[in-house]
C-alpha cells in the first residue's frame, strides 16, 4: 500500500521535474533527506530515487529547461572550500590504509553532497526558491520526528525514539531533529497562511518532544543551546520564553524517571564509560593524524581494528588525558572534529573548520548588509540567524558524534552563501542609480 | 497506520510545494507558492527614519 502511494506520488512529480530543473533539484534534495526506503517495504525500497533525480537535474541543466533563468556556475568562498574539501577527500580515499570497509562509500557521499551544494547557486536564485529550499528541508527532516513526537505524548513520555538506519543511532537522529527546529521556527515566522503557520507551530514542540524521546544527553545540551540562540534572536522574546517554559514543564511531567536519571549523569560524565571510550577514540584518531598529517588514515580508519591496534599507544594530541586501559578496538571517533582529523589528516580538519567558520562569517556579512538595506530584507537576516542556529546545533551535538559527512550541514552552509549572494544583489540594486 | 498517514501527508505537502514552485517558475510576477507562500514586505517602502525630538 505504502509502495503504491509513493509510486503514485513520484509518478505525479515526474512531469514537473522533467519540465523544470529546479523541481528536479528539489526532488533530488528531498529524496536524499526523506530516505523513502526506510518507510516502504516493497518494490519502491530498491528504486534509486536520489540517483534518478540527480540525473534528471543534471540533464535538465544541460538542456537549460525550467521557467525563469539560471545563474552561471560561479565560484564563491563556500564553493571553493567545498571543492578543496572534496578533492582532498579523493586523495584521502586513494591513500587510505587497506581494508577500510566504508572508505570509498564515504568519499562518494562527500562528493555527491558537494555536487548538490555546488549546483545550489545555479538554481536557488530568488526569494521564492530560497523559501522552497527551506520548506523542502524542513518537511523532509521533521517528518522523521513527527511520529516519535506523537508517540512520546501518547505513551506519556515512555517512548524511546531510535530514528532510521540512514542517520545512525538515537544521538544522530536527535542531531538531525535539532537542525530541523530552527527551520520550522523560521517558517512559522514568515508563512503567510494562518493554517500553515499553525502547522509549523504544532510541529515545533512535536519535534522538541522527539528530541527528548531519543534520551540523548548531547542532544539535550544542543536543544538548550539552540533554544537560547533562537530566543536571543527572536523579536517576540517574551512569547518565546513563555512557550519554552510551558514545553519544559510538559517534558518534566511526561518524561519517565529513567530519562531524568540519564540526564542527571551529564554532570558526572567524566566517570562515564561512554565518555572514557570517546577519549580513547579521540586519542587514536589524533595519533593517526600525527602519523599521516596530510591525508590521514582514510575514511573511518579509526573503526578498523588493525588501524586502531597499530595506533592505540602511538603519540597523540591528548597525552594529558589519562584513561584506564580498556579492551575496545576499532570504535567510532565520536566527534566530528576527531573523525575528520583521523580520516583526513590536519589538512582535512583545517578545511572542515574553515567551512564552518566561513558559514558564521557569512552570517555576519548578511546581518551587516541587511542593516544597510533596511526592513525589506529582514527575512534574510532571520533566515541567516536560523541557519546559524542549525549549524550551532550541529557543532554542539556533533562534537560527541561521528557525523562529519552528513549532508545537512553542508546544505545549510551553501544555503547561507546563496542567501548572501541574493542579499548582495538586492543591496547593489538599491545603490545603483536608476537609468534615466 | 499513523506512520502511513504521515507519509501520505508528507507526499501531499511536498507535492503542493512542487506545484507552487512550478507555477512560480512559469509566472514569477503573479505566481504564488500556495499554502507555502510567505509574507512579502513592500520593497518600495523606505527604511524607517528616526526623527529627532524637537527641543
Characterise the protein shown here.
- The complex is a heterodimer of chains A (436) and B (55).
- Chain A has 3 domains: 2-70, no CATH class; 75-123 and 272-436, no CATH class; 126-271, no CATH class.
- Helices cover 71% and strands 0% of the residues of chain A.
- Chain A has 16 helices and no strands.
- In chain A, helix 9 runs antiparallel to helix 10 and helix 15 runs antiparallel to helix 16 (407-431).
- Chain A is globular, with a radius of gyration of 22 Å.
- By secondary structure, chain B is mainly α.
- Helix content of chain B is 45%, strand content 0%.
- Chain B has 1 helix and no strands.
- Chains A and B meet through helix 1, helix 2 and helix 6 of A and helix 1 of B.
Quickly give the structural class of chain B.
mainly alpha
In DSSP terms, counting alpha (H) and pi (I) runs of 4 or more, how many helices of chain A?
16
DSSP strand count of chain B: 0
Shape of chain B: elongated
Mean pLDDT of chain A: 87
Query: Quaternary status of these chains?
Result: heterodimer
Order of helices and strands of chain A: HHHHHHHHHHHHHHHH
Strand content of chain A: under 5%
Strand content of chain B: under 5%
Q: For the CA atoms, what is the radius of gyration of chain B? A: 20 Å
